[in-house]
Fold this protein.
Amino acid sequence: DAGVIQSPRHEVTEMGQEVTLRCKPISGHNSLFWYRQTMMRGLELLIYFNNNVPIDDSGMPEDRFSAKMPNASFSTLKIQPSEPRDSAVYFCASANRVSGANVLTFGAGSRLTVL
Amino acid sequence: AQSVTQLGSHVSVSEGALVLLRCNYSSSVPPYLFWYVQYPNQGLQLLLKYTTGATLVKGINGFEAEFKKSETSFHLTKPSAHMSDAAEYFCAVSAFNTGTASKLTFGTGTRLQVTL
Protein backbone atom coordinates (compact mmCIF):
# COMPACT_ATOMS: atom_id res chain seq x y z
CA ASP A 1 0.00 0.00 0.00
CA ALA A 2 1.25 3.50 -0.81
CA GLY A 3 0.12 4.85 2.53
CA VAL A 4 -1.75 8.11 3.05
CA ILE A 5 -1.05 10.39 0.13
CA GLN A 6 -1.19 14.16 0.49
CA SER A 7 -0.80 16.86 -2.10
CA PRO A 8 0.71 19.29 -2.60
CA ARG A 9 3.75 18.67 -0.37
CA HIS A 10 4.61 22.34 -0.42
CA GLU A 11 2.42 25.34 -1.20
CA VAL A 12 3.40 28.99 -1.17
CA THR A 13 0.64 31.46 -1.76
CA GLU A 14 -0.27 35.04 -1.11
CA MET A 15 -2.69 36.29 1.47
CA GLY A 16 -6.26 36.21 0.23
CA GLN A 17 -5.79 33.31 -2.16
CA GLU A 18 -7.72 30.08 -1.94
CA VAL A 19 -5.78 26.99 -0.87
CA THR A 20 -6.92 23.42 -1.37
CA LEU A 21 -5.11 20.52 0.27
CA ARG A 22 -5.86 16.99 -0.80
CA CYS A 23 -5.70 13.61 0.88
CA LYS A 24 -6.09 10.04 -0.28
CA PRO A 25 -6.47 7.69 2.71
CA ILE A 26 -5.35 4.10 2.80
CA SER A 27 -7.79 1.88 0.96
CA GLY A 28 -10.23 0.27 3.37
CA HIS A 29 -9.72 2.81 6.14
CA ASN A 30 -13.01 4.24 7.35
CA SER A 31 -11.81 7.18 9.43
CA LEU A 32 -9.95 10.27 8.26
CA PHE A 33 -8.40 13.08 10.27
CA TRP A 34 -6.99 16.51 9.43
CA TYR A 35 -4.38 17.90 11.82
CA ARG A 36 -2.42 21.15 11.76
CA GLN A 37 1.07 21.45 13.21
CA THR A 38 2.76 24.72 14.20
CA MET A 39 5.62 25.54 16.52
CA MET A 40 3.37 27.62 18.73
CA ARG A 41 0.36 25.33 19.02
CA GLY A 42 1.74 21.87 18.30
CA LEU A 43 -0.60 19.31 16.73
CA GLU A 44 -4.21 20.40 16.57
CA LEU A 45 -7.08 18.26 15.34
CA LEU A 46 -9.11 20.27 12.86
CA ILE A 47 -11.79 17.78 11.83
CA TYR A 48 -12.38 14.06 11.48
CA PHE A 49 -14.68 11.85 9.47
CA ASN A 50 -16.04 8.39 10.08
CA ASN A 51 -17.45 6.61 7.02
CA ASN A 52 -17.22 9.91 5.09
CA VAL A 53 -19.39 11.76 7.64
CA PRO A 54 -17.89 14.67 9.62
CA ILE A 55 -17.98 13.75 13.29
CA ASP A 56 -16.19 16.59 15.03
CA ASP A 57 -15.21 19.87 13.39
CA SER A 58 -14.78 21.83 16.60
CA GLY A 59 -11.11 22.33 15.82
CA MET A 60 -11.71 24.18 12.57
CA PRO A 61 -10.39 27.65 13.37
CA GLU A 62 -13.05 29.72 11.61
CA ASP A 63 -15.37 29.82 8.65
CA ARG A 64 -12.48 30.32 6.27
CA PHE A 65 -11.71 26.63 6.72
CA SER A 66 -13.84 23.88 5.23
CA ALA A 67 -13.33 20.16 4.71
CA LYS A 68 -15.12 17.62 2.59
CA MET A 69 -14.99 13.89 2.06
CA PRO A 70 -17.09 13.11 -1.01
CA ASN A 71 -16.10 9.44 -1.00
CA ALA A 72 -14.02 6.94 0.92
CA SER A 73 -10.87 7.60 -1.10
CA PHE A 74 -10.62 11.38 -1.14
CA SER A 75 -10.79 14.38 1.15
CA THR A 76 -10.03 18.07 0.79
CA LEU A 77 -9.25 20.84 3.22
CA LYS A 78 -9.90 24.29 1.82
CA ILE A 79 -8.87 27.68 3.16
CA GLN A 80 -10.54 30.71 1.60
CA PRO A 81 -9.26 33.36 1.94
CA SER A 82 -5.87 32.36 3.31
CA GLU A 83 -3.99 34.46 5.87
CA PRO A 84 -0.34 34.42 7.00
CA ARG A 85 -1.35 32.87 10.34
CA ASP A 86 -2.56 29.80 8.44
CA SER A 87 1.05 28.94 7.64
CA ALA A 88 1.64 25.46 9.06
CA VAL A 89 2.09 21.84 8.14
CA TYR A 90 -1.23 20.14 7.55
CA PHE A 91 -1.39 16.39 8.10
CA CYS A 92 -3.99 13.95 6.97
CA ALA A 93 -4.28 10.60 8.76
CA SER A 94 -6.51 7.57 8.33
CA ALA A 95 -7.50 4.59 10.46
CA ASN A 96 -9.64 1.48 10.30
CA ARG A 97 -11.35 -0.82 12.76
CA VAL A 98 -9.38 -3.90 11.71
CA SER A 99 -5.93 -2.61 12.62
CA GLY A 100 -7.25 -0.83 15.65
CA ALA A 101 -9.54 2.06 14.97
CA ASN A 102 -7.47 4.56 16.91
CA VAL A 103 -4.15 3.68 15.29
CA LEU A 104 -3.63 6.52 12.86
CA THR A 105 -1.44 6.33 9.80
CA PHE A 106 -0.20 9.77 8.84
CA GLY A 107 0.65 11.22 5.48
CA ALA A 108 3.87 13.15 4.92
CA GLY A 109 2.09 16.47 5.31
CA SER A 110 1.47 19.58 3.24
CA ARG A 111 3.60 22.56 4.21
CA LEU A 112 1.66 25.76 3.61
CA THR A 113 3.27 29.18 3.56
CA VAL A 114 1.00 32.20 3.20
CA LEU A 115 2.87 35.43 2.42
CA ALA B 1 -12.22 15.77 28.02
CA GLN B 2 -8.84 14.14 27.61
CA SER B 3 -5.37 15.62 27.64
CA VAL B 4 -1.73 14.66 27.90
CA THR B 5 1.20 16.53 29.36
CA GLN B 6 4.71 15.83 28.21
CA LEU B 7 7.34 16.95 30.68
CA GLY B 8 10.35 18.45 28.98
CA SER B 9 10.20 19.87 25.48
CA HIS B 10 13.84 18.88 24.89
CA VAL B 11 15.76 15.89 26.23
CA SER B 12 19.42 15.23 25.49
CA VAL B 13 21.11 11.89 26.15
CA SER B 14 24.43 10.35 25.21
CA GLU B 15 24.53 7.48 22.78
CA GLY B 16 24.13 4.25 24.77
CA ALA B 17 22.39 5.95 27.69
CA LEU B 18 18.87 5.33 28.94
CA VAL B 19 16.10 7.26 27.24
CA LEU B 20 13.16 8.37 29.41
CA LEU B 21 10.43 10.55 27.98
CA ARG B 22 7.64 11.47 30.35
CA CYS B 23 3.92 11.58 29.66
CA ASN B 24 1.01 12.08 32.05
CA TYR B 25 -2.58 11.86 30.93
CA SER B 26 -5.96 13.04 32.08
CA SER B 27 -9.07 11.13 31.10
CA SER B 28 -12.54 10.67 32.55
CA VAL B 29 -12.84 7.26 30.91
CA PRO B 30 -10.36 4.39 30.53
CA PRO B 31 -7.80 5.73 28.09
CA TYR B 32 -6.09 4.38 25.05
CA LEU B 33 -2.51 5.70 25.03
CA PHE B 34 -0.02 6.03 22.22
CA TRP B 35 3.49 7.16 21.46
CA TYR B 36 4.29 8.46 18.00
CA VAL B 37 7.65 9.53 16.56
CA GLN B 38 8.24 12.22 13.96
CA TYR B 39 11.46 12.47 11.99
CA PRO B 40 12.32 15.76 10.24
CA ASN B 41 10.02 16.61 7.35
CA GLN B 42 7.97 13.47 7.81
CA GLY B 43 4.61 12.50 9.21
CA LEU B 44 4.10 10.75 12.54
CA GLN B 45 4.73 7.03 12.92
CA LEU B 46 3.28 4.81 15.61
CA LEU B 47 5.86 3.55 18.12
CA LEU B 48 3.54 1.68 20.46
CA LYS B 49 0.08 1.68 21.98
CA TYR B 50 -1.75 0.65 25.13
CA THR B 51 -5.39 -0.33 24.94
CA THR B 52 -6.17 -3.01 27.52
CA GLY B 53 -4.35 -5.92 29.11
CA ALA B 54 -0.63 -5.95 29.83
CA THR B 55 0.48 -2.61 31.18
CA LEU B 56 4.02 -2.88 29.82
CA VAL B 57 3.90 -2.53 26.06
CA LYS B 58 6.75 -2.99 23.65
CA GLY B 59 7.08 -1.09 20.42
CA ILE B 60 9.37 -0.74 17.49
CA ASN B 61 13.05 0.18 17.64
CA GLY B 62 13.48 -1.15 21.18
CA PHE B 63 11.10 1.31 22.85
CA GLU B 64 8.64 0.36 25.55
CA ALA B 65 6.18 2.13 27.80
CA GLU B 66 4.36 1.26 30.99
CA PHE B 67 0.79 2.27 31.77
CA LYS B 68 0.50 3.24 35.44
CA LYS B 69 -3.08 4.07 36.30
CA SER B 70 -2.26 5.13 39.88
CA GLU B 71 0.20 7.70 38.55
CA THR B 72 -1.77 8.54 35.37
CA SER B 73 1.49 8.08 33.49
CA PHE B 74 2.67 6.43 30.29
CA HIS B 75 6.42 7.11 30.15
CA LEU B 76 8.47 5.98 27.18
CA THR B 77 11.83 4.28 27.72
CA LYS B 78 14.64 2.70 25.77
CA PRO B 79 17.62 1.10 27.53
CA SER B 80 20.27 2.33 25.13
CA ALA B 81 19.94 5.34 22.87
CA HIS B 82 21.12 5.29 19.30
CA MET B 83 21.91 8.25 17.09
CA SER B 84 19.02 7.27 14.84
CA ASP B 85 16.58 7.83 17.75
CA ALA B 86 16.97 11.60 17.45
CA ALA B 87 13.47 12.83 16.58
CA GLU B 88 10.38 14.37 18.10
CA TYR B 89 8.17 12.12 20.21
CA PHE B 90 4.48 12.66 20.85
CA CYS B 91 2.29 11.08 23.49
CA ALA B 92 -1.41 10.84 22.66
CA VAL B 93 -4.65 9.77 24.32
CA SER B 94 -8.03 8.73 23.03
CA ALA B 95 -11.20 7.23 24.40
CA PHE B 96 -12.48 3.73 23.84
CA ASN B 97 -13.73 3.20 20.33
CA THR B 98 -16.65 1.14 19.12
CA GLY B 99 -15.17 0.27 15.76
CA THR B 100 -14.77 3.68 14.27
CA ALA B 101 -12.13 6.07 15.42
CA SER B 102 -12.43 8.66 18.09
CA LYS B 103 -10.08 11.58 18.14
CA LEU B 104 -6.52 11.46 19.36
CA THR B 105 -5.32 14.32 21.53
CA PHE B 106 -1.58 14.86 21.29
CA GLY B 107 0.89 16.31 23.74
CA THR B 108 3.19 19.14 22.78
CA GLY B 109 6.05 16.81 21.93
CA THR B 110 9.53 16.13 23.25
CA ARG B 111 12.53 16.59 21.02
CA LEU B 112 15.14 13.93 21.72
CA GLN B 113 18.75 14.77 20.98
CA VAL B 114 21.38 12.01 21.04
CA THR B 115 25.00 13.02 21.41
CA LEU B 116 28.22 11.08 20.94
